[in-house]
Design a protein that fits this description.
Elements: E1 8-12, E2 15-19, E3 25-29, E4 32-39, E5 43-47, H1 66-75, E6 80-84, E7 96-101
Parallel strand pairs: 3-7
Antiparallel strand pairs: 1-2, 3-4, 4-5, 6-7
Length: 110
């Protein structure tokens, strides 16, 4: 069953296969920003800003500044919107670049 983030999972021959959900996502919170992908099953995977590949060190400490931002985004209902490229000069079609996340601030403002 697909989730809100386009995640698809399948059970095949006793194995569980999970395709990552939506991403890349850009979360801005408290003057900082994080790029990540999010899976409902496995949680977030932080990405490098330079090439959007997984960061070698993921935030495992609960004191890492990413977690309050991520938690605020969760509590805000996973609000996000797509950001597209400009239309191609040849085809006129736009491509999805990334999703920007909206997390409410600690005082409740979006």
């Amino acid at each position: 069953m697909p989730s809100a983030f386009g995640q698809h999972a399948a059970n095949i021959g006793g194995a569980h296969i999970d395709c990552w959900g939506r991403g890349p996502l850009l979360l801005r919170f408290g003057g900082k920003e994080w790029w990540f992908e999010h899976s409902d099953m496995f949680g977030p995977l932080l990405l490098r800003k330079s090439d959007l590949e997984p960061m070698p060190g993921q935030p495992t400490s609960d004191t890492h500044p990413f977690w309050p931002a991520f938690t605020a985004w969760q509590r805000g209902g996973y609000r996000h919107r797509p950001v597209y490229t400009r239309g191609s000069k040849v085809t006129g079609k736009r491509r999805l670049r990334f999703y920007i996340c909206h997390a409410p601030t600690t005082d409740g403002r979006p």
